[in-house]
Amino acid sequence: MVEAGAWWTLLAAPGLLVVLAALAVAGNAVLDARDAGRLVGVAGAVRPFLGVPRALVAQPRRLPAQDRLLWRTGVVTVPVAAVLSTLVVPFGGRVVADPSVGVVWFNAMEVLTWAGLWLAGWGPDAAFSLIGGYRFLAQGLAYELPLMFALISAATGAESLRVGDIAAAQDGLWYAVWMPLAFAAYLAGVLAFSFLGPFAYPAGRDLAGGVLGEVSGADRLLLQAGRWLWLASGAAMAVPLFLGGGAGPGLPSWAWSLVKTLLVLGLLVWVARRLPVVRADRYVEFAWVVLIPLTIVQALVPALVNLHR
Amino acid sequence: MDLTGLTLRVAAARPHVLLAAVPGGTAVRLAAERLLRARDWPRASTPAQADLLLVAGPDLPELRTPLERLWRDMPAPRARVHARTADEVEDALNAGRALLGPPAVRHASAAPPADAGGHREGDHGARERHEGDDQTPGHDGHGDHRGHGGHGGHSGGQTEMPGGLPMAGQGADRDGLTLDQLHLPLGPLLADWPAGLTVRLVLQGDVVQRVDVDEPARPIDDAAAEAFWVQPWLRAASGEPVPVGEAVRRRAAAHLDSLGRLLAVAGWPAEAVRAWRLRDDLLSGAPRAAVAPRLERFTRRVGRSRTLAWLTRGIGVVTAQKAREAGVGGPAARAGGDVTSRYRQWLADIRRDLPRLEDPAPLDVAVEDSPRGPWSAEHPPSAALIALLPRLLEGTELAAARLVVASLDPDPDELVSRGVVEVARG
Amino acid sequence: MGTTDTVLLVALGVLAPVFGVLVFTLNSMARVTFSLLASLVCVGGVTAVLGLPYLGVVIVLMMVMEMVIMAVFMIAYMMNPAGLMPMSMLHNKRGALAVSGAVFAALVAGIFLVPWPDRTASRPRDTTFQVGSALMTEQMLTMVILGFVLLATMVGATVLATHRGRYDRFGDDLDQRPAEDPVGGGVGR
């Protein structure tokens, strides 16, 4: 069982999330350095963080017909929703809050990115940025339902929407093992709501950065941070949902949570570099014709198992 | 020491560079890309993301306005430098970094953004016009999404118009939605785009309804521009003996350059970087044994990627017959198909060329194709490729349109330096 | 109900109508859409605070998705292009005022006139479970019918809206494969 509500977890959870996101950025930088033939080392891994002071001194962007309020709202929504989503993610035996509808909470926070990115694309009143915002919606219509069915599969397996119950229900056999499709659909969903790698469609190079194209300074930092925070949050959530939470032999449960989260995070960073951007015009049909039926069948499996238990 | 100064110094250690390549500046661009990669200075694709504007190539009066616009859109602290030749790149970058340090910023905020910013006269060639926003390069971009192209950026005319931007018109479209028409120019300084090419699109939603291609910008002094990729063919045509190995090496590097650009547009930056690294190794004269294994791995990964093939199939089909009718030779014609078949053709060509990198036989222009097709000074192969664009792009979606252009990858240098050829022949 | 819940309830209860009023006073379609969304999110919060966490969070989840999609359509089909020009959500002001006034009066009257029952049973421990079992037992038929009606509406609306039929896609003899579409899909049908 997880223990919820200690006051310090309210500070620890965002802190841990930022650290995990930073590790993902550093890991990605190392792989970048290797591909580019530069020296692989700690110096290269921390170089992306030079962008932080840079963002803080840079001028914000001003455009003739921007909607500053909506733009800012969108930019802020993405990282804030990522942080809020972690409130229900148990780490070891601790969690900030363990509501009876934890899974739905995580899902709802993730959906806030839809609004955030659309607004971030709309705000600057620039063509590529706007197209980027719309692209995320097209992508959302494709990835969201398989993701939801993946979450439902895990919840059905545990007969509970409480994240702590789901982790506890995988005693001995992880859901990732007997619900591999749901696990895969979930991981694809994580990359999609972080708009990274194959799902970087809204921020595509063909749009000169899309939703990221017009933001500068602190706005840019927030939006970029939002991506990696979401990746870290998604990786952390995969552990209680599909990998048995903090359970494991030998080590304390926080250590198991950390190890599993880092492995999932590493896997996501690696996969993100191995695939080109999947455009929504191709992915939507694939998602609706192939993925949704498959994930529905996947959700049926734990339902039948539970009926016959 | 003040905190801001320290922050600026730290930030200047890894400036984001907006590389504005102009026609005739391919050699400069390649040198800059190689250096940026070695130094881990990320490339920005829009002025908003950039600290340093690097103009690569000769002076082009026609591009002054778009460059000015890029510069205007860059947020302070910022600097701009101009490298006219490949040898100037390193000094220009160093000068740029120095300008980004603390004192420069004070300048920049004091000086009105529109004129040369705070960074004048560095050492080398610095200053230059700016900004060409990759995205909406030709114009005032940012207002474009509502309307008639960017001409109206700031004029304001009618008082009611928010931001002084003109209203969009409507028109019939493919899906019967009668959406607003958006006039969006791609180029001339867009990232991952043929330098100097301007394609004016009329978009409804993100469906391309109409396409007009501008004449590419030309340098004032034709001799300043150099068609880097066809240089061995130009020299051979003017009677100078050129070894086949050199031409073949140049051709393979050109294909890798195009592949890198296609992969970047397709959203696969990790493989794009690999392609560009191989390109630079080839150009620096690396022996075959040094590049062959990596090239093999790269070819396997990209050529056999089912995802990439799935994403590009059926887009921008040019059958062999259509290509012939349009006067297109070279890889695009030999591939005779969609984007997938064209990038696979490039990969096949590179592998075929690999054994001949050290071939000392003299180059016969009539036998060996230049990178984009049989070389002819009167009809450079890129002209035919550009002429194909309007028909291919109409009716596609924006993402597909970018893939089509990247998979043909016309080289505007071939057009602007035609004068060089004529001089050489005459 | 603890202090936190009461404070939240009051704050959300005030914010929801405030955003609702903004819907009719703002002059940009994007802002109008998102203030409506903000209002609905507050309603979701109120529902959750009142002891229905599942319904509350689902309201937030669904309303965000729905309003963002709706923003696309509202902006795409506005008479003034792309929603840039100042606009107003008010039309037929006098009639609308009369209708909304009457509805408001009727609802307020309802509060006082309806004989509200006292709670007889004890509070359920888990309202989420209660909602689920209600939907899956006595309301099962309702939900099944609703599901089919919604699906039929979606399919019907799509069929009516699209101007390309199967003969356009598959040719006169329905034998053309792959189908001739302006943009090919990802499955290659």
TrEMBL record, chain A:
Taxonomic superkingdom: Bacteria
Keyword NAD: yes
Location of the protein in the cell: Cell membrane; Membrane
Bilayer-spanning residue ranges: 69-91, 103-122, 134-155, 175-196, 228-247, 253-271, 283-305
InterPro entries: NADH_UbQ_OxRdtase_su1/FPO
Keyword Transmembrane helix applies: yes
Keywords of this entry: Membrane, NAD, Transmembrane, Transmembrane helix
One Pfam family named in its UniProt record: NADHdh
Membrane topology according to the record: Multi-pass membrane protein
Chief site of localization: membrane
Family, per entry: Belongs to the complex I subunit 1 family.
Name of the protein in question: NADH-quinone oxidoreductase subunit NuoH
Automatic annotation (TrEMBL), chain C:
Name assigned to this protein: NADH-quinone oxidoreductase subunit J
Membrane topology: Multi-pass membrane protein
Keyword Transmembrane: yes
Keywords from the UniProt entry: Cell membrane, Membrane, NAD, Quinone, Transmembrane, Transmembrane helix
Localization in the cell: Cell membrane
Pfam short name (any one): Oxidored_q3
Residue ranges of coiled coil: none
TM regions (residue ranges): 6-26, 33-52, 58-77, 97-116, 140-161
Species this chain originates from: Streptomyces prasinosporus
Catalytic activity line of the entry: a quinone + NADH + 5 H(+)(in) = a quinol + NAD(+) + 4 H(+)(out)
Family: Belongs to the complex I subunit 6 family.
Main location: membrane
EC number: 7.1.1.-
Function of the protein: NDH-1 shuttles electrons from NADH, via FMN and iron-sulfur (Fe-S) centers, to quinones in the respiratory chain. Couples the redox reaction to proton translocation (for every two electrons transferred, four hydrogen ions are translocated across the cytoplasmic membrane), and thus conserves the redox energy in a proton gradient.
Top-rank taxon, per record: Bacteria
Transport among keywords: no
